[in-house]
Amino acid sequence: MPDASGPRGPYGFDARVAHPARVYDYWLGGKDNFEADRIAGEETIAAYPAIRASARANRAFLARTVRYLTAEGGIRQFLDLGTGLPTASNTHEVAQAVAPESRIVYVDNDPLVLSHARALLTSSPEGVTAYLDADLRNTDQILERAAGTLDFGQPVAIMLLAILHYIPDLDEARRIVARLLGAVPSGSYLAISHAASDISPEAMAEMIRRMNKHLAEGNHVGRTREVVTGFFDGLELLEPGVVKVTEWHPESAIEAEAPTSLWGGVARKP
Fold this sequence. Notes:
Layout: H1 20-27, H2 35-47, H3 51-71, E1 77-81, H4 91-98, E2 103-108, H5 111-115, H6 117-121, E3 128-133, H7 139-146, E4 157-161, H8 170-182, E5 189-195, H9 201-214, H10 225-230, E6 236-237, E7 243-244, H11 253-256, E8 262-268
Parallel strand pairs: 1-2, 1-4, 2-3, 4-5
Antiparallel strand pairs: 5-8, 6-8, 7-8
Helix pairs in contact: 1-2, 2-9, 3-4
């Protein structure tokens, strides 16, 4: 595990403050986290023990959506926002296993993810991967820089997995989604997973309260299925609509019944 010998970590960030990407890494059993992240991770697990299974379910949802969009949707370009720390079945690995020419841009604002960018920048010879150190709220900057790798004249899959729940202002979150969708052509896709406020509501509310105690911005929110569905307004929702992430094209009945605290869905821009 990383060791912060002083108040600031080796990449110029404050290791005493938990970061969502590193707490998520802890939930997944990873080693790229600091004591502050582990404390936040344990406190949230105590409030909602299924959070670890839910984090794994989100990674599985990512792999299934990318595989589906590549194989069934014909998508060859992905903009993955809120990438997190590299683990198994990253977006480029799944996409390029189906279509080696796929191009992927990863975006995250955690300096530790930047330190692992090499793992994210591996690519098939035919394809391309790139990594942007940027905050989701700087949407115009992200789109401008991503255009160096992606052709926004061709369909793009916008991946917003477990990231919009760190934009607490709903109007701002909707504006971000609208700006991203406005930059891509017909035939593009939007994939979202989002913390639920109406799945195990009491436990989730306590889990989020504890999480926010440790985050610099204290900005984690849950939203209802109805609100999450609203992010897809004007798009063609793919079956089965907005459901628990475990229920979106599961590979088995066991996977479909696994615990999760996330709503998920995928839609096509007409």
